[in-house]
Amino acid sequence: MKTDKIRSLFLQFFKEKNHTIVKSSSLIPANDNTLLFTNAGMNQFKEIYLGYKRNQTSSYTSSQYCIRTGGKHNDFNKVGYEPYHHTLFEMLGNFSFGEYFKETSIIYAWEFLTHKKWLKISRKKIWITYYYKDIETKNIWLNKIKIQPNHLITIYDKNNIKYHSNNFWKMGDSGPCGPCTEIFYDTRKNNKEKKKIKNYNELKKYCVEIWNLVFMQFNQIRSKKLIKLPIPSVDTGMGLERISAVLQKVSSSYETDNFIKLIQSIKKTIKIKSNNYISLRIIADHIRTATCLISENIIPGNEGRNYVLRRIIRRALSHGYFIGLHKPFFYKLSEFIIKNMTQINVDFNISSNINVIKKILLSEEKQFYQVLKIGMYKLKKEIIVNQTKKLCEKKIFHLYETFGLPIEITKDICKKKKISINFQKLNQIIKLNKQKQKKKHTQKNQHSSCLIHITKKSIFDGYHEYIKKSKITQIIYKNKSVSYLSEKCVGILVLNITPFYGESSGQIGDSGKIINKKGTFIVNNTQKNGNFTAHLGYLKKGILCVGENIVAKIDSKKRKRIQSNHSASHLLHAALIKKFGLNIVQKGSYINNKYFRFDFMYNDNLTEKDIQKLEIIINKKIQKNIKIHAIITSFSRAQKYNAIYLSSKKYKNTVRMICINNFSIELCNGTHHESTGKIGCFKIIKYKNIGNSIKRITAITGIPVIHYIQKKINKEKKIQNLLKNNSNDIYKSIKKLVNKISYIKKEKKDLTNQNISQISKNLISKAYNINDILIIISYISHLKYTMLKNISDTIKQKKESVIIILINKNTSIIRFLISVTNNIIQHINAIDVMNIIFSILSGKGGGNKNIVKGKLENTNIISEKIKKMKKKIIKYIHENNIYK
To answer: Which parts of the sequence belong to the Alanyl-transfer RNA synthetases family profile domain (predicted)?
Structure first.
């Protein structure tokens, strides 16, 4: 049975059971910061499960594309190596919200799998698991379905940790959860070899999980604490790729019809005959995921979802490298995904975006190969220098962290070169780095975590008012709710009504004071999550108690500067779209009182002229002093106005729309001026690429623009004074100076070449001739390695058979270079000469038979050692009867 047919049958089955078919939702969870990607079919129904939202329809079915590459559900390292794991997969599911529960869902699953009208799977092939506390589910399987008791496996908690079990499903660290029952298919073919399955480990060994029925009964609010959901619900998931493998009687989902077509197309396109199935599987899996993510406006980068995409692409490219693909190839494969990803109820817009997708992939590949080239050069250098056949684990990690060279490629090359690596040490280094990153991330988000302890809601009333009478409703000190805060203590105040804007919409939180007769609290930052607002700071003097009346005063000067930058960011966004079209996609912003950053996706580069035109457009809008209106309206009406909004964000029915004439209409909850004239002026101070097709503009407004221009003028005056030029055209003076420097450099190069030629002649004249082989060994002070190399090359151009040993002390380190001409390396080579030197002076070095370099032990009697070196080399030539 073909994969597409299985999907159609599944949806048809549940449609006949009065389920509404819904589309696969976006891979980017809407308005949900607890998830990196959509990892289950139930994600789009989360608010219904939690009871926040009610729908007229109680039962749904879908075929949902999911990604599991991080957090609790992370299959990334298994992909390609294990038969049924993918970064992106299709999840068939049925969902019920109060209409039916355990018994009906189990009966539906059994009917679809075993009935002759549907999948016709043999009952003898099916095994079931259930959570040990869920006796109701156990009885349904035994009494209603009549499953053989020895095909029913009990699953307990792991390590005696409550609700930590393979059969207690959780979406993440928090959210809807509940017991589940899993359905397994026995993949064993030979009946004679079939052993009785007694436990979960044996079950996983002989069977593949095909369907999981989750009974959503609880909401996990923190570790080990569950509360009952208002309506018990059903969430099931059956991997389409897995069930296809079962029905097509293949041992891996990579061998199913759709994957086989994709892998064959890949092999044909990249013209590779390799049978390295793991690498081909990984490339096939990863091109699906990368193509779909880019189609949803995720671009390769260094953080969050962007980093996951980059990691997926680079893993595929690394495996391409393993099978001999050393030039960009990955971008060509995205076209094959169109056929696989345009089936029923899936809308990735791949077809219309294919050229953009290919361009982004090609750009990322070129960047990767550049990184790979530098990393490979550094690795080869390390291998040459290292003579112990061992590579330092710190060096491997350094190559990965600094130059981006994948550890897998380093391992593979070292394996081929028979260079050993201590994997235990390497894993420890990687683990330590992860811990450092985690600690850094925790420290970065420690303010956000404080919102967990807030139980009292606040009303924000600070768009126009900077001072507000209010009341303290909660005080948090050392992560605990307390009744008062003492002098000099750091804590959090919660107010019933506040003029302080909490950090959101890219805008930083307000700072200021909360005061009454008893005390003064300095607010350093304001954080918010929904209706919960935290005023973070310290009590400068006195004492403040819960229930007391206070006056909240924000730093108005700071707020006005923030508003200038926020309103200017809207003007910039609109100007970019007006000038470069609707393919400008906002990727983030950061707005404070000093400057603002605006990140956007655009496939071409902005020129200096483009930047200047943007500045003129925006400053003209500022000069016109256009009114800025904040309009509260419905989301559907805002769409009719063609308001700009983030497609990845989920908006409520009521939204706030910021209108600057018809020039800029954008959904935003941030604070703004009443008119553009209050911005003062606008200046772009920096423009750069921060990722693949992602640009960042940094700009300033108001008085900081004047300061910026004054600093520029002062610098120009200093340069003018330095050049002793009174004219305003310092460009000509600098150009004249640059030309003069170029001439001096050329003169220096000519003199250096003359010097090298003279040194070479002197060394040749002092050379020792033995058996028509010249031995040149000399101690030359204060020359760089490049000079030694040039001297060596000059001598080799003039003489046919020569051994050159140049020892140099430029700093406190003694370096050496050994060079041997081609015609004698079969008798004596540079490495042989280096080993003779090391028998006299300790040091380290590396290279090839023609040339080696390295360092020697610092010694004051180097001239005496050089004599010994010369004698030993002559002796070696004599003893080995070496002739020209």
So the answer is: 1-711
Beta bridge partners of 600: 586, 695
- Residue 444 is predicted with a pLDDT of 46
Closest CA to 496 of 547, 451, 536: 547
CATH topology assigned to domain 447-554: Elongation Factor Tu (Ef-tu); domain 3 (2.40.30)
Which CA distances in Å does 36 have to 32, 43, 77, 304, 605? 9, 12, 17, 7, 29
What distance in Å separates the CA atoms of residue 15 and residue 61, rounded to the nearest whole number?
8
**97-124 pLDDT per residue, tens:** 889 999 999 999 999 999 999 999 999 9
Give the Cα separation of 495 and 513 in Å (integer).
Answer: 12
Choices 3.40.50.1100, 2.115.10.20, 3.10.310.40, 3.40.50.150: CATH for 755-879: 3.10.310.40
pLDDT for 443 equals 47
pLDDT at 447: 46
The two most distant CA atoms of the chain are separated, in Å, by 104
Q: Are 599 and 638 a contacting pair, CB within 8 Å?
A: no
How far apart are the C-alpha atoms of 611 and 622, rounded to whole Å?
17
Q: Report the alpha-carbon angle 41-43-44, nearest 5.
A: 95
SS3 176: strand
Nearest to 699 by CA among 567, 598, 559, 576: 598
Give the architecture-level CATH label for domain 3-248.
Answer: 2-Layer Sandwich (3.30)
Choose among 820, 814, 864: nearest CA to 842.
Answer: 814
Q: What is the spatial distance between Cα 89 and Cα 1, in angstroms, rounded to a whole number?
A: 18
Residue 224: predicted pLDDT: 65
Residue where the block lists tokens 């050379």:
767
650-673 burial code (b ≥16 CB/10 A, e <16)? eeeeebbbbbbeebbbbbbbbbbb
Q: Judging by DSSP bridges, how do beta strands 773-781 and 802-809 pair with one another? A: parallel
Measured CA to CA, the distance from residue 575 to residue 571 in angstroms comes to 6
Rounded CA-CA distance 317/368 in Å is 8
Which positions of the chain have pLDDT values less than 50?
443-448
Residue 838 in 3-state DSSP?
Answer: helix
Amino acid 56: pLDDT: 64
Instruction: Say if residue 672 carries a ligand binding annotation.
Output: yes
What's 559-709's CATH class?
alpha beta
Q: Which two tokens stand for residue 782?
A: 């204060």
Ordered by start, the domain boundaries in the chain are 3-248, 256-368, 447-554, 559-709, 755-879
User: What three-state secondary structure class fits 791?
Assistant: helix
- 464 annotated ligand-binding residue: no
**Cα–Cα dist 786/67, whole Å:** 52
566 is in an annotated binding site: yes
